[in-house]
TrEMBL record:
Pfam family, any one: HutD
Species: Undibacterium arcticum
CDD domains in alphabetical order: cupin_HutD_N
UniProt lineage: Bacteria, Pseudomonadati, Pseudomonadota, Betaproteobacteria, Burkholderiales
InterPro entries xrefs: RmlC-like_jellyroll, RmlC_Cupin_sf, Uncharacterised_HutD/Ves
Source superkingdom: Bacteria
PANTHER family: PROTEIN VES (PTHR37943:SF1)
Entries under SUPFAM superfamilies matching the protein: RmlC-like cupins (SSF51182)
Name the record gives this protein: HutD family protein
Amino acid sequence: MQIISAQNYRRMPWKNGGGVTAEIAISPAAATLGDFDWRISSARVTTAGEFSRFPGIDRSLVVLDGGDLSLRLPGDQYQYLTPASAPYAFDGAAPISATLSAAAITDLNVMTRRDRCRHHLQRIAWSDPIRIDAADAGTTRLVFHALGVELHCHSSATGQMIALPAGGTLLLDAADAIELKPASAAPDARAMLYLIEITTR
């Protein structure tokens, strides 16, 4: 397992130039916005606007903090997202525009190229220590730690123990089975994890 610290996320403009995103991880490592297999990013959204279009890409979006996000979908349908909402999956090629409530939001975005891989984004609310089991070969797993206290991550495969700070991301080998628990005596009720599983087709 490996920590990707928030300080090492790559800041870059959105595809449509409407804002700035923090690229958490991308595959292959040297890929661009036009040829990645998968990409994980987070952005601070402060104004309304159009989503970037990504033909051939499946996307999932979740609001990490801030206000509410309203998505206008094709056919004048609407999807409303809040920090309490489940992740929303959609076609990256769809024409979508977003408006905000009074507060800006921070989001987490997962994208996979449909003919190469698929993904699942899961929100895990904090309770007791959390165990994440090993995965099948061909599955990449990342744990994004959005809010709350530092976590201790223990790998049962290697015996390794590392600390995952708030805002950091844990990259797991397929064979890793890990337990996550707070570094301090009492967990923070705001703590939230996002498990991202990416499977090669």
